[in-house]
């Protein structure tokens, strides 16, 4: 969203899926951040690739094929390469000021753009209130609810592709 704000004159529509752009206040998101920021979980992320090996499989409807898992493992094949993945949960709460500045700017700068939300209805993280925030900040929102969990790109790739094609053809 920060990039979209900086390049708003070049954007005619936004396509978003299971995400957010405001300070994390939902208890389950804050809990996820706190738990994955502990020394034990940070060590598991860095040393055992916990994010890919445990969190990814928990975030999809069906087991991912071995070659798909390898696709996620390869770029995170060493502890050094996992530094960003380890930092991510810590930044969910630590970046509140940065996210606050973004969320303050979104309605005025981007709020008139059409927005497509491709949303996993079985997502344990981005529940319906997250969609409500988009609906509040954007004047024109199309929601495509997917029979998907958190990693919608794995659970419903064809549906997402069709939704984007339909949306961009109409906007």
State the share of residues found in helices, binned by percent.
Answer: 55-70%
Task: Supply the helix-strand structural class.
Answer: mainly alpha
Largest sheet: 3 strands, parallel
- Trace the largest sheet across and list its strands: 1-2-3
Shape: globular
Percentage of β-strand residues? 5-15%
Strand element count? 3
Low-confidence stretches: none
SSE sequence, one letter per element: HEHHHHHHEHEHH
The termini sit apart by 19 Å
Average of pLDDT: 96
Q: Report the radius of gyration as a whole number of Å.
A: 17 Å
List keywords for this structure.
171 residues; mainly alpha; 3 strands
Question: Would you give an account of this structure?
Answer:
The protein has 171 residues and is mainly alpha-helical. 57% of the residues lie in helices and 11% in strands. The chain contains 10 helices and 3 strands. The protein has helices at residues 2-6, 27-36, 39-48, 50-58, 66-73, 83-94, 96-110, 128-137, 152-155, 157-170, and strands at 14-17, 114-120, 140-146. The chain has a 3-stranded parallel sheet, sandwiched between helices. α2 (27-36) packs across α6 (83-94) and α3 (39-48) crosses α4. It is globular, with a radius of gyration of 17 Å.
